[in-house]
Amino acid sequence: MDMSCARAQDGCFPENFTFKTKDPKKKLTISYPCVMLNVDVARNNTNEQYQTLTDPVNKTYATHSECSIEFEVDGPYKAMILPASKEEGILIKKRYAVFNDDGTLAELKGFEIKRRGELKLIKVFQAELFDKFLDGSTLEECYSAVAAVANRWLDLLDNQGKDIADSELLDYISESSTMSKSLSEYGEQKSCAVTTARRLADFLGDSMVKDKGLRCQYIVACEPRGTPVSERAVPVAIFETDAEIMKFYLRKWCKTSSDVGIRSIIDWSYYKQRLGSAIQKIVTIPAAMQKVANPVPRVVHPDWLHRKVREKEDKFRQRKLVDIFTLRSRNDATITNHDEADVKDLEDFQIKSSSINRHRPIVRCYDVNDKRPAKKTGQLNSAEQQTDSVHELSSQSQHNTSYVENIDRNVDYQGWLELKKRKWKDILDRRKKQRLSNSRTSHHITNASELLGGLTNHKGAQRRTGVGSYFTTHEVAPNTMPLADNTATSKFTLWPTPAMENFPGRHVNKTLPHGRPSYNLVEVIINEDKFRKESKKLAALLADPEVEGIYQSKVPLEFNAVIQIGCVCKVDKTAKKRNAQDGWTLSELHMKTTTECSYLEQSISFFYVYHSTSEGRAIYVIYMPALGTVSVVVVNPYQNKDITPSFLERQFREACQALSNEALPPRNNIVFKVDYVGHVKDAEKILQGTISELRDKHHGPTLAVIECPNAHLMKSGVSVLDDFPCVSIPSNARDSQYQVLGWQQAAAKIGMQRSAASSQWLNERISLSRYAHVPLGNFELDWLIFTADVFFSRALRDQQQVLWISDDGVPDLGGHREESTCFADEVQQPVLTYPGAYRKVSVELKIHHLAVNALLKSNQINEMEGGVLLGFDQDMNSSTTLYDDQSGFDEATSSASGLRVLKQLIQRCLADAVTSGNVFADAILQHLYRWLCSPQSKLHDPALHRILHKVMQKVFALLLAELRKLGATIIFANFSKVIIDTGKFELSAAKAYCDSLLKTLQNRELFEWLELEPLQFWHSLLFMDQYNYGGIPARPDDSSHNDLHHHSPTEEPKVDIVSSWNIAEYLPKKIQDHFVLIVSEFMFIPWDYAQKQAATREALRDGNSCTPSITVVAAENFESHMVEYIKGQIGTHFTDKLLGIVRDTVLHMKGINKSENVQQNSLGIQQPAGINHIGDPALEFIKHVCAVMALDQHVQHEVLVMRKNLLKYVRVREFAPEAEFHDPCPSFILPNVICSYCNDCRDLDLCRDSAVLAEDWRCAVPQCGQPYDREVMENALLQIVRQRERLYHLQDLVQGRRV
């Protein structure tokens, strides 16, 4: 019998002993533990009757002793690596790696590295992996080193082994298997080895596979798809044959006609799964079981592991009953007097002993005749009173019971009931007296934690004793009805606080905003009149120490009704018989979806009212499709009449045709009418009469669609509008900017265009109502923000979360402002700028859906960051989260529940936009970030905004890293766009590269919902920052076969040069022209030279029969020739030209300054704020031009030499402080400026934006042009100033060091 045994012992235990023999050269070393164990086993476990056959003929046996159990000592070891199983509840045996103290591998058992024929990829991976487990000083550092090895091998499979040779790749991914029998003996069996052998016989002959012992080496192909792995084995020997033979057999086996290269036929997913399985067993699953975040995020944990980790880390898991008790040794079986003193009687839990050494009360047994023994000395009076009251209550109840039993309930029911009532009343009185006696007794108790109701507002209460010590009671939050333990009656009594008696409600279990704890939350529903009357009392409750906060006190009534009942509702059965005039409460109306009940399926009658006004002039338009009339009222104080009905009819029909309106009205069906008045009041009277006429003639539901600058003012002037449901259309402020002459026809034309589009707009708004489940007339002017608020509010209510709706952009956190420092929305927008001269084709890419992609991939990003980005697991139930009043949550954790609900909402919108093509869901996705950062949103939460902004920054950084990995050079990047250098000289090659780049990014899972749109290609780009750049843009008609280099060398190509240099605004006007000219030549001359060289090469190429390939060396040579040409131009052309300009500037600048000042004073022209021409104009010109030309890194030395010579001319030293260039323009960016008409959102630089400097504060969308609301912008600026002031006052004071 052979057995093995393992036992761990301390490293300091004596192990080896060495004996010196008589022979000095010989020593005897024994292992003390082994000798002692072997002696013990030999004495107790030796088989004394072991039989050995000695004579086979006579069958005689010899008896002797036998013991085959022997011990050996292994170690001590430095580390032992144990793998884990991929399946739950299954352990892997006899597989480990052991390391000595010196870091050498002592023993390796069971791993694939020791198996012959195993996948070499796994074997090499494991060979590199095990040593890394010794790195690092913590578990995290250890697994980080191990993960680096795993990531490197995963990268090898992800990039399909492009960095290694084909032979090396085959060596890594091939497997081998030796066939124990001949191929014919396997019959119809299926395996990779059998398939490999048959395919070897296919092209090598049957003689090669007829014998057994054949070694089959194969790889797994991806074709034919859908077949088992055993049928996709390809012998490696096929890749060593002739190329044509290889292609023939590979196409035959793979059943494909496409490319059959090595990398194209390999089943990469199969090998990723094999490697991922090994990584899971050795790295990721053991890391998770040791509470380390997934070190290899690309290898996903199995589902059961997530559950296992949550169970191990759950702080609120139910404790076992045995955890409460502790084991007592046998020697302590006898309980001492001191132990007896610690054990309390069940009836004395509330009574505190005066001394710890006091004897415990003895429990007596009472006789039936109520004879009691004398009172024990040292027993408290309160305990006696409690015992008396309980006994009296018990005896009285027995007396009543016996008396009641004498009355038959069926004979004398009234008598029986009267006795019962007296009994119940007596019991109630007894209990009241008992509670009163208990409360009096509690005054003598010194421990505050044992007071009745003492849990309320006592943080850090002392440790409780008795039964209460077995339970942990959370601190009861103020504003609640705390649970007080009444030990006398063994019940938990609900004690209402006096503050809540005026506002009765019900307890609810909901999640509070920002993860605040919700122990006792009371929902109070009162009508609006009482709410207004009792508003002061509610405000006073916030000062009550027992009230933590009052939530949802700022929810508008109308908004609350919209999110509860939607646009289609059903009356409750209990209120169906009620008259409609009496009305219903919200609780009696149940929301129905538009799929269950249709909403405005039949066309509804409407009339359209349009109004615009400017400086006493105005125009009113009423379009009534039901009556077939268009009435126009012109308010004109000057009495000139430029509008006729025929003009209106023509404009109306042209507008209908432009809109492709299928329901184009017949020519004679619409009557046009024009009225002229001198005052607005007269026009309102005409409108009043016209709409009243419509009401009298047309019966049935009618809707009023109003488009005017002020709808409330319109309704107050035209009172008949109150009789109709009204829907408001946002008004474009540009409509009310009349020109001086011809304003009537221009305004009437716009009115006809708006009237023609009114029906189409109404149909779209009805479709939006059906999708959003919002009544048609309840949309606000910014329907995107309003719809998002409604969706988010409903989602939060479905998840039992309290809303933080407010009307001032500050979330309602129950009335507390302790988080006022977190209310700022000012975030640092990432802007990456890499100045330089980019002579190759560049492309500007617009980034779409960055916020949506960041939100949907937030969990993946959080896992990649090790869980530090979003705090706790986003999938964790918020009700199980522990809140610490002193430490609190960080911003990410407090917003986790809201972020989770928002993510689910966006996923539903994305499904609607992708599957059904819903335009409204797509619009919400496009404006997600604008909604989150807009203070006009009712659910605006700056903390949520900043969390999403953090995730967007991570996705943005990963996007730029991916672009660099794919060979692009970043020029400029922010959240809205990125400019990259493609590295291509030809436009066609750049476009092809751009298409390939975008397709590759779309295939990345992390950028699944990100969209990059090419906006502009540049042949050459000179870039300093987003407000200082110039370039040669590619024309839209440039194609792959019509590049500019096809021009002849003598032909001058026609190009456009863009010069947008904000720094030039700080130079005098005439010098600005010289600056733009020099910079434009600096871009054009090298580009023109490159085009001529390319045309020359193209001409030589066309003359030859063959087309030589352009190598990398040739491209580098061409680039070096280009650099040398630019250097020569700087030394000759630019230096001479700049010297001439500087000389003329020095001679004539005084006269130029004098003439400009006289001209500006005579015309009253004021320069833009902050623009001052300070210093010598010639010096400023030199500094500006040289700073721009120095952007080209290849010619910086030549530019510095030219700058030195130019500075000598104006007598300024090269390194003088005044010779250094500084950007003269400050920068201040106002983020998220929103157009009130088209909802466009952009960041506005108030100091450097050219339109703002020209005092043109308008929307940048060409089709819009709506002026920005300056009041909103001023409020945003004030908010930023207040926040910066607050942060300044709250900053830490740095103590200056005295010298």
UniProtKB/TrEMBL annotation:
Molecular function per GO: 4 iron, 4 sulfur cluster binding; DNA binding; DNA-directed DNA polymerase activity; single-stranded DNA 3'-5' DNA exonuclease activity; zinc ion binding
Alphabetic keyword roster: 4Fe-4S, DNA replication, DNA-binding, DNA-directed DNA polymerase, Iron, Iron-sulfur, Metal-binding, Nucleotidyltransferase, Nucleus, Transferase, Zinc, Zinc-finger
Region (Disordered): 369-401
Biological process, per Gene Ontology: base-excision repair, gap-filling; DNA replication proofreading; leading strand elongation; mitotic cell cycle; nucleotide-excision repair, DNA gap filling
Cofactor(s) needed for function: [4Fe-4S] cluster
Predominant location: nucleus
Subcellular location field: Nucleus
Gene Ontology cellular component list: epsilon DNA polymerase complex
Annotated EC: 2.7.7.7
InterPro entries per the UniProt record, alphabetical: DNA/RNA_pol_sf, DNA_pol_B_thumb, DNA_pol_e_suA_C, POL2, POL2_thumb
Domain called DNA polymerase epsilon catalytic subunit A C-terminal: residue spans: 647-1032
Biased composition, class Polar residues, residue ranges: 378-401
Catalytic reaction(s) noted: DNA(n) + a 2'-deoxyribonucleoside 5'-triphosphate = DNA(n+1) + diphosphate
SUPFAM superfamilies hit by this protein: DNA/RNA polymerases (SSF56672)
UniProt function note: DNA polymerase II participates in chromosomal DNA replication.
Family: Belongs to the DNA polymerase type-B family.
Protein name: DNA polymerase epsilon catalytic subunit
Naturally occurring in which organism (per UniProt): Salix koriyanagi
Lineage of origin: Eukaryota, Viridiplantae, Streptophyta, Embryophyta, Tracheophyta
